[in-house]
Design a protein that fits this description.
The chain is α/β, with parallel strands linked by helices and 298 residues long. It has 13 helices and eight strands.
Length: 298
């Protein structure tokens, strides 16, 4: 086959496109927000790439020099695993912050692979936290209070201000998720490009509306990210167009493709940003993170 034919092949075109995308991102400095942005990453529908999005966007922002923390309030602890932070039952965790009034500073750990990235891990004890929270005073505001105290702690101790805090929620709308909504000023919703993508979203938005009305009037749905996009199917394109039509202001231009590398990374206790930084998945999350950061100064 001659060179002209090779240059016009789909694989060659994809490589050229990815090279150009990567060149645009290399060495790019992302703007710091004026204040700490606290984003709850939520979708009560499971399997939409919620935790994957949380850890990879956080890792991409941290790798660009921003100060980032992930708070894992999902009892499965998958975000803690992906960030390489220990979260076995004996570890002090976000459970102790919510239930036992531990200071956030006592449980936050630095991520071993990425500078400027911190994690408040989840342990299996969180599985019972929904029941234990019911009887506690100001049960919906406990995470918010802990975050406020931690922000002050960093300031008093001369530590750099956090630019982003991401709260990874369980796929439900219980008291843990309500705590996350009360603690945040933004909601970040990953939506998979598959059939029934919008199913359950109306209920999520209705619950967010109730939180806005009764508990946190500052909360806004700021960001929607399309995940698991397969460009080979008409369905994915149709779903993407449908979501963009319903939420033109919130949907990021960047889309996350279906990717083996993204799926493999957590089993090595890594994000895709460190597991395979040259992969299409890592590149897509870098683009999403850059877009998110740039929206903070618009």
């Amino acid at each position: 086959m001659d060179n002209d034919s090779d240059a016009g092949s789909p694989i060659a075109s994809q490589l050229v496109s990815e090279t150009k995308r990567r060149e645009r991102l290399l060495g790019r400095r992302l703007p710091r927000p004026d204040r700490t942005r606290i984003l709850t990453v939520a979708n009560q529908k499971g399997g939409v790439g919620k935790t994957t999005t949380t850890v990879n966007v956080a890792a991409a922002l941290a790798s660009a020099g921003l100060q980032v923390m992930v708070i894992d309030i999902d009892p499965q602890g998958n975000a803690s695993t992906a960030l390489g932070v220990p979260h076995h039952a004996e570890i002090d965790s976000i459970y102790d912050v919510l239930i036992n009034d531990f200071a956030m500073a006592d449980v936050v750990a630095e991520c071993p692979d990425i500078a400027n990235l911190y994690c408040a891990p989840a342990t299996i004890h969180l599985a019972g936290a929904e029941i234990e929270l019911v009887s506690l005073v100001a049960r919906e505001q406990r995470l918010r209070r802990a975050i406020d105290e931690y922000v002050k702690f960093r300031e008093v101790n001369g530590q750099e201000r956090l630019d982003f805090i991401f709260i990874d929620c369980p796929p439900s709308l219980g008291l843990l998720t309500v705590n996350a909504f009360c603690a945040a000023n933004e909601v970040f919703i990953p939506i998979q490009c598959e059939y029934y993508a919008l199913e359950g979203l109306s209920q999520l938005l209705k619950n967010i509306g109730m939180i806005q009305k009764h508990l946190n009037s500052d909360l806004v749905v700021s960001t929607i990210l399309l995940t698991m996009y397969d460009g080979r199917t008409n369905l994915a394109a149709h779903v993407a167009a449908d979501v963009r039509e319903h939420f033109p202001e919130q949907v990021l231009r960047a889309m996350i493709p279906r990717s083996v590398r993204i799926s493999e990374a957590p089993s090595y206790q890594q994000t895709v940003m460190t597991y395979d930084p040259s992969s299409t998945g890592a590149l897509s999350y870098l683009e999403a993170a850059a877009e998110l950061a740039e929206r903070s100064v618009s």
